[in-house]
Design goal:
Number of strands: 0
Largest sheet: none
Distance between the termini: 28 Å
Structural class: mainly alpha
Length: 138
Amino acid sequence: MFSFSTESSEKALVGAVFLGGERVFYEAESLGLREDHFSKPGNRLLWAVFRDGLEGGVKPDVGMIYERHERDIVKFGGFSWLSSFSGACGSIHHVPSYVDRVIAGHRRAKILHAARLALEAGKSPDNTAADIHALLEG
């Protein structure tokens, strides 16, 4: 059965940045990855933290990120959650595959959301086919 979840790819991708640093981060972004492609709020937070840190000259580091963002990190599981990412990455050489899966998962989620909106809109006799089509076009 096919899974729509990209949680493991997201975690592996964040782990790849911890392992490979800025080169991996910028490689992922050059492949089209954006912060909003992540389905998990904690992963989106870390991607933003990576970007902000790199723009300020700070390399991705578990300890440094935890110290600077402890209040936010605790919401997702604290230091143990943060330190679990590196072990989720099989190899930084898999970054293009991780990126592809995360972006594809984001695309699937958007399609599913539009379909749900269209189904709901279809229940109302006030909505025309054009209205529903507009929802699907997003």
